[in-house]
Amino acid sequence: MTIANSRKITAWEDITAAVGNFHLAALLGWQDVAQRYRRSSVGAFWLTINMGVLIGAMGLIFGTIFRSPMSEFLPFICVGLILWGYFSQLINEGCLSFISNTETMLQLPLPFFTYVLRTWWRNSIILFHNIIIFPIVLLLFGKFMGWTALLVFPAFFLVSLNLLWMMVVLAVVCTRYRDLTQIIQNVMQVGMYVTPIMWQPHQLPADKSMLMLDLNPFYHLVSVIREPLLGQMGTPLNWGVVAGMAVIGWGIALLFLNRYRSRITYWL
């Protein structure tokens, strides 16, 4: 009886087993990135170059349209685009965490959460490559990060907790309902425009701020990381929502995985 096919294994046991063997998920995630850029002289830094070009182009275009000081707008959109690319890829690929590992799941007795961690780590490696752009942008304007940047570490931890529970839920649901993957991709595309990524919150009319900011979970997820990098701390609402989402979300994820775990291999 193995952890992959036993009906007696709980969601909590599955997750703790995967976390306890995180090195396996990390190795698989690293190999995914290495395989994609094998024999490339620049390697994964092609992603950094592509993101840098996108940030420069979008920053100049939207900064000009909004008539924003480039020294403020370019760092803002830089962090926003990097984070949204990370969130979007994680959510979209999270939907396929089980589907894309069908052969492995049917043959090896690994915890199911390992495949979610694999997706998370693969995209986190890409994030670490892309975030190099931000200090370069700051240096272009003679700016430096302050002590508030240290808040990025607890913020990234909380944001990762939220993204992981979302990936668990979506991986289970999308394995059962394959068409949902396309719907999620469309939602993430629209989400970029209703979240302050390419526009700043103060540009929003006051009567729209509650709908597009306070009730937008991705705004809070972006803000707790972006604000410390820009010299702010983020609002108590930002931190409260992110922490609350992590607690409630993981409760939902555990229920989902516990209820449907034994059926996942039959849906593959």
TrEMBL record:
The keyword Iron does not apply. Residues 27-227 form the ABC-2 type transporter transmembrane domain. Keywords: Cell membrane, Membrane, Polysaccharide transport, Sugar transport, Transmembrane, Transmembrane helix, Transport. GO terms for biological process: lipopolysaccharide transport; polysaccharide transport. InterPro entries: ABC2_TM. The chain crosses the membrane at residues 44-66, 73-100, 120-141, 148-173, 237-257. GO terms for cellular component: plasma membrane. It is found in: Cell membrane. GO terms for molecular function: ABC-type transporter activity. Pfam families: ABC2_membrane (PF01061). It comes from the Bacteria. It is a multi-pass membrane protein. PANTHER family: CAPSULE POLYSACCHARIDE EXPORT INNER-MEMBRANE PROTEIN CTRC, INNER MEMBRANE TRANSPORT PERMEASE. Belongs to the ABC-2 integral membrane protein family. This is ABC transporter permease. The lineage of its organism: Bacteria, Pseudomonadati, Pseudomonadota, Alphaproteobacteria, Hyphomicrobiales.
